Amino acid sequence: MASTYLDRLEGIETSVAVKAPVRVATTANITLSGEQTVDGVALVGGDRVLVKDQASAIDNGIWNVSTGAWSRAEDFNGVRDAVQGTRVYVVSGAVNGNTEWSVTTDDPQIGASGVAFTQLASLGGLHFGSVADLLASTSLTVATGEVIYAGGMLYEVAATGASDHHVTTAGGVKLYVLPVGAVYNVEAWGPVTAASFNTAARQVADIASAQADFLPRYVFRCASEIATDIQLRIERTGGLRVTGMNIDLALCQITAQPGGSLTPATPVLYIRSRNSETRLGFIDCNRVSSGVNLKDCMGSTMYLGQVRRFPTPGATVYGVKIDGQTDNIRVMTGVSVQWALEDAEFATLANFTGRAFWLDGIDFNVSNIYGGWCGTPIYLDVNCSLVWLIDVHPYNGHPSVTRTDPPLIESRAGGVCYLHDSYLDNGIVHDYSANLQIFNCHHLELLPHAIINDAEVRVYCSAARDGLSPSFSRFTGNTGLSITFRDDETGTYSWAGSDLAIANIHAAVNQQGVNAAVSQRDIRIFYRADTLPYEQIVRMGGFFQRSFHTVTGGGAVVTLTETVDPEMSRWSTNAARLRVNGWEAIGAGAPLVIAAGSVTATSRFHTIDTEGAAPADDLDTITTAGVPDGAMLTLCAQDSARDVTVKNGAGNIFCGSDRVLSLAHKTITLMKFGGGWLMVSFADNT
Predict the structure, then answer these.
(1) Euclidean distance between the first and final Cα of the chain, in Å?
(2) Which CATH number fits domain 186-465: 2.160.20, 2.70.98, 1.10.4100, 1.10.510?
(3) What average pLDDT is seen over the chain?
(4) Is the pTM for the entire model greater than 0.85?
(5) CA-CA distance, 686 to 295, in Å (whole number)?
């Protein structure tokens, strides 16, 4: 039996009862390719067409127009997408415009068997060409409960005494907005303004949140440009958190305007929604306000657009802020920049004050974000714990601006947080609370830095992703490495050297006249003999090749004592492999074969096969002995003819639900934490 679900490829939310409207319907057999005229309407790429008159009824259905071969619409392309009685409305056409059609085939198998349609009774006077025409009507004669079609939107007539209606016509007829294919469009409320947006958001949120569970059954969508001097808010009546509703603002452009209630510390968009999928478009703060605050959005997946031009008064301005109840949030994409090159403010260092991404919560995942050209691209506040930053790109500075030591990440996290597989571009990382752990990150370009504030900052580097030579900064030559020690009582002391030869470091430290308070600190840096660090560590207690050097003494005399570090025996300096207690942090391991539901992984990538080459097998457990916390593991099927089901919660793997690796191009990526493995992503890749 078909069911409602969200298509993440085209953003069309399908419903087996009513489909999203089509532009035209055919009147005869047509060729399913090219832009053409159907029923008197010239079609262009992207138009939806009800094809119902093909010589072979297998080809009937809803299709998307293309300059080449047409494709079936994503909401009418599977066995769960239609049933007998599924309806679709036709907007335009000399013959079929303003008509509605219904599937008459019992148990239709789209693309496998014929599908037939029949026209429903005429819509008569209950159709308007646009929402504006309907709302301007002064002579509408209707009965309570009747359905009205207007510009692709659906309405139901409310009782004359209703107080919970959504819109009212000029003639005083009260109407409820109905979802089209499970989608509530803001445009159904009339001309889109900040006020109508907030009203629509609140009313749809109340409807969606009235469901007995938290499953998103509706979509709130806006595809208009909104210029506003007040805050846009997506929440329930009374400021309560929304449940049961996805949010689609991917095509909505929001621009803050002066003169209203917006302030630099006030976000122009505020969202409070649980267990939702949210897509945002372009947000221009226009030097007036901050960007977007995602508040209490636990269990949600966020696809952020671009936020820019948040103002300069201080560190409390931001592009994106995530706080409150943040458990199991996944932020998948996003760009946040305070200023771009074309902005006049870009040329003045004092204008770089805000935070691109301000994070302040526990147990959530941020990946594929780009943030920079601001005061701090990524800021981890005191409530942060178990926050994973994966494949992020913080950056700052520009050749047109002279900026010394621009910050990239500032962490005051109260618990352990992780930075994985990211590119740190020309700047420094501040860890004020000794809770940030950094793994497999690319170099700090041009001027590599690390700030150690009585804390541990670890940077694990891997080979270049493009398969070419490693792309890290060399620790010899002119690029140099500088380290700053900060002590709350005695101030800041630093040393820097253009070459990490022992003599040069010794000379650099002596030149600084390091205070005696620094004498107990160890300076240890590991790098390969050829100076290309497949693993670079900058921390108190790090490595200097196969030895470390301890700073002793104080004042103008500092001694560096070399000591062999036994821990180095656990690391391989082979260019193709890096081992940590036997775990290969780079490269692919040997194929794994399931034995009694378990495997032992030794590398960050393995193919996996069933026990005894059985047609199918379950994977319950992945051993964790010798694997460091934060290690990433990607698995894919060894043989497309044999299915491996990764079981959720049956052993030490936690992936939300069972995941089937049935084809070689399906992959699951897991992160080791404690005694188990947590899923980071599952990709179909079809």
Answers:
(1) 24
(2) 2.160.20
(3) 76
(4) no
(5) 34
